[in-house]
Design brief:
The protein is an alpha/beta fold. It is built from ten helices and twelve strands.
Amino acid sequence: MKTPNLPADLGEQVARALAEDSGTGDLTASLIPAEKNARATVISRETAVLCGCDWFNAVFRQLDPAIHIQWFANDGDRVNANQTLCELTGSARNLLTGERTALNFLQTLSATATSTRTHVEAIAGTSTRVLDTRKTVPGLRLAQKYAVVCGGGVNHRIGLFDAILVKENHIAAAGSIAAAVAHARRVAGDRVVEVEVESLDELRQALATDIDRILIDNFTLAMMREAVAINRQHGGRVKLEASGNVSLQTIRGIADTGVDFISIGGLTKHVQAVDLSMRFSM
């Protein structure tokens, strides 16, 4: 797997997180002599897909550039329970100050990458790709989008600015699917234009427009199969994206209908932090 580009605002994300946690200074760290050095190791307590090494590094780089970190795994790697992920050496005070913030990034992003990999593996052998959504942790969208790619998924639009998704309220305001798509196409430039449909009739209306992708929302499996067949009758030019009630129990059946994408908000919304711990020796 090719590692995606790191977000340009990674340093800012880390700076905000450190300010949130440390404020005017770590009071408890003052109990440790300033000259005291320590060694720490980060251990995985469960099987997971690692993600967030650069955020972890940036925490300690901003606190103390003299801290040395050696990694034994990389973003996108599957790691096992009781595996040592990295080793740190340096100022005991700064290691303790950065511990929680660094682990918060590593646990959250690894959770997103792990969930994504699990869903991707559930549809292995099909041509369907797993997409993320805009249902991300506020302030961590680019970080979580990076984690999705590390897990083998594909990024949907980053925000409201880089693609157009025409939904029910937009259609109602424009008067019809055709009118809404025509207007969207005029303002989109070379950006993707997608429309959400809720029935096979609306699908046919959308296929008659200059659309790039159609979101088939909460379709039954039978309706999805028919939608794929209808799209093929129109030359298969348009990509079909399925969404709604997607789980590990349902995703394989959805992929087997032949849709191009399955979007899953839970990849970034329903994250359960991966169990990691940092052990110290003074």
